[in-house]
């Protein structure tokens, strides 16, 4: 048995076959020319094997797609299978191997391209689509020939697997059929890496930052992932695998009970009701959030829709995504945050320039206000998605009153245009801002009358108020949600909002932290937005407290002069185990 140790990024146990995902190689067939003379017989045999494998894959994809999207839409994969058996096309591939002496990869590329171009010349939409299909099949066959992987294989997962990768990008996880993912193991990445965040949102056990040696495992090898300990084991005997399977089953059973209990509202023992909602990244995580007892969504991070692609998503594409999430939520609140890009999140197709201090630079609302071509389509898509749904719009990184007013002006302008175009939207759509810049926290009394709600983004508020980069381990000692300076800012924001009859939520990680919840409750926080798997325990904790107790806790905690003393005080209460 071999053990691999890493960071415990997302709790839970997974047992199952590994899928080694290494998409780094490209499909450039010229870089893969075999050395020495070409053996046409061998190339033809490789071709036949690849065609058989492609056929097998497509049959699987078809079956899966039929269940998911219906017979009619799935039929495209049957058409792909037909290309693999087209005698004229295959003759042409083989001719290029034997006569032109091309390796199988290049013969496939050339022959399929020739047929695709012939179809395109027919100048008809139907045939143009078929040309695209041909190129798609060509890529699949060449991928198999070259042993190369790409995101499509993640989208097409039909069997449960533990995904092992160097790291996963937002677009990898966006494409992935996450229902088939038992666990994640990555060579790189820390607790705030994308893989770790997504794993926690989805409740998938994950170990990250293991080191390159985890890439020695082979696809199909049975793995045990212990996301509690940050441990991965390969080659475990059947007895041990069985033990872990039993632990996994027990955890799932407990989780099922927790999820059922979490469908109750979040009410304190003396009847004070708060909202416990979820942070999500897409429609799949919205479904999961409801299972975990979310009463709505407090933060939908839209930037995942914009990252790792070659061009901006169109208004239509955005509308479809927002509407899909809104449909999952029904009449529950759905707070969608406008694009929070810049800082450490760069769009490859948008030149944002080099900055000395990207976290303090041209990002989020600053960039959007300067870029109507980016902002307006998003606002249009959000408004359109609001029809008969409880969609609320939230602006990130607000630092000044002028920014709020400018953002609202742009929203009004967009509403005006939609009206003229006779396009439906909800004119009462609520508008809120994130409080994550200290200037906004200090000016909360001035900002409150201008908006419908606040949501405190502690992930950034901590880094800006303590002047410590949130991803720099060397200054991590400063990055503390329980620092009295942070607590005072939070208290001030809640009081200012309430004085103006506005409600206040929190969508930074602190909102789901069991140590902090009693204190936040006592400070009067109205809405707690967190990763879905944190919801059941948060609701249980809230139900175990009275508001009066929580208020006393907040008062005591805020009287402590250092973060350590606040922590020691809260830890001494031993509430989080209830
Ligand atoms: C925050 O800053 O607290 C927040 C929720 O936003 P993000 O983590 O996406 O920056
Ligand atoms: Mg933020």
Describe this structure in words.
- The chain has helices at 40-69, 71-84, 87-98, 104-120, 125-146, 151-155, 170-175, 194-202, 238-261, 283-291, 315-329, 364-370, 372-385, 401-420, 438-442, 444-447, 458-465, 484-499, 517-523, 535-544, 547-558, 563-573; strands at residues 2-5, 7-10, 13-21, 161-165, 181-186, 206-208, 222-226, 231-234, 266-267, 273-280, 297-301, 334-337, 391-395, 431-435, 453-456, 503-506, 527-530.
- The two termini are 38 Å apart.
- The model has no long low-confidence stretch (mean pLDDT 91).
- With 578 residues, the protein is an alpha/beta fold.
- Phosphoenolpyruvate binds at residues 299, 301, 340, 436, 457-460, 507-508.
Topology:
Elements: E1 2-5, E2 7-10, E3 13-21, H1 40-69, H2 71-84, H3 87-98, H4 104-120, H5 125-146, H6 151-155, E4 161-165, H7 170-175, E5 181-186, H8 194-202, E6 206-208, E7 222-226, E8 231-234, H9 238-261, E9 266-267, E10 273-280, H10 283-291, E11 297-301, H11 315-329, E12 334-337, H12 364-370, H13 372-385, E13 391-395, H14 401-420, E14 431-435, H15 438-442, H16 444-447, E15 453-456, H17 458-465, H18 484-499, E16 503-506, H19 517-523, E17 527-530, H20 535-544, H21 547-558, H22 563-573
Parallel strand pairs: 3-4, 4-5, 5-6, 10-11, 10-17, 11-12, 12-13, 13-14, 14-15, 15-16, 16-17
Antiparallel strand pairs: 1-8, 2-6, 3-7, 7-8, 9-10
Bound molecules: phosphoenolpyruvate (PEP) and magnesium ion (MG).
Magnesium ion is lined by residues 396, 436, 457, 459-460.
